[in-house]
Amino acid sequence: MTTHQPAGFKLSGVGSSLPDKVLTNVDLEGYMDTTDEWIYERTGIRQRHIGSSTTELATIACQEAMDAAGVGPEDIDLLLLATTSPEHICPGTAPGVANELGLDCGALDIQAACSGWVYGLPIANGFLMQGMNRILLVGAEALDKITDYHDRGTGILFGNGGGAAVIERDPSGVGELLGWDLGADGKFVHILYAEHGDVLKMDGKEVFRQAVTAIQRTVQNTLDMSGTTVDEIALFVPHQANIRIVESAWKKLGIPMEKTAMVLENTGNTSGATIPLALHEALREDRVQNGDLVMFIGFGAGMTWASALVRWNGS
Ligand code: COA
To answer: Domains along the chain?
Structure first.
């Protein structure tokens, strides 16, 4: 390993996973006083996936990302797992996932709620600059374990899923992490939280308000750090919480929806998994070319927020 070298930054393989079982808005009409139309109109969500486990969803997404990158367990130097729905209070979920994958390296959880996967991008970059060659960054959630599907506020939003990327050094000079921003404001812990052994509780209106503010702030900070403008960016991959949140923030920032990767309609909010899930879908649709600028934007409980701008040289 060499240390402290400019490393380059490349997402060389991306994978994702969703449980087979689907819970539609129409199904929810049987659980609570709501309608498919109301949910879709207010959130942009039609269905979410439930079942499986955080470990299983993380393992499948990671394996798919490793296969796409053409690497094996011996090539991975670190596993970072962003999750809001860990298997246990202790230990972290990452060591179990590493075991399933046959990895022989460090493994740790990132607990930054829905911002976790984006927090992982500059963390991974730091380790590449310290001399690591390849890092697996996965977001995975079994949110059905902490969601009350009879609650009209939270039950309409959350679902399960996983998304992962192999991140590696890129000596070509194309792939690079051009800018990033991390933030947290613990004044807002009480607007979205789950106590030990309990389900998620949320002040939806306040979360909506704070999310729109956080997105604007973090996108601007990353644009400033990288000396980039909105117009230069080919694709925005925001956290998929509620399409109305994204639309409100985009309107203020002047970002067109056509440049946005969205999977929310079919997945609901899968917290730490939404961004790699949406990225994977955009790659399948061939929406990203090498050399393109791609921005990732996370926000969520804490409040936490994060954004990162990558010059793409990917899978
Ligand atoms: N189905 C049908 N009607 C509902 C409903 C539901 N699931 N939930 C609330 N309502 C009704 C209320 O009874 C109220 O009716 P009234 O005007 O007759 O009194 C009306 O809709 C508005 O209720 P309110 O609780 O103010 O809803 P809202 O407009 O704030 O929408 C959310 C609720 C959850 C969709 C919205 O607050 C939201 O998405 N917030 C952000 C949450 C989020 O993204 N969290 C994750 C962040 S990472």
So the answer is: 10-168 (3.40.47.10), 176-311 (3.40.47.10)
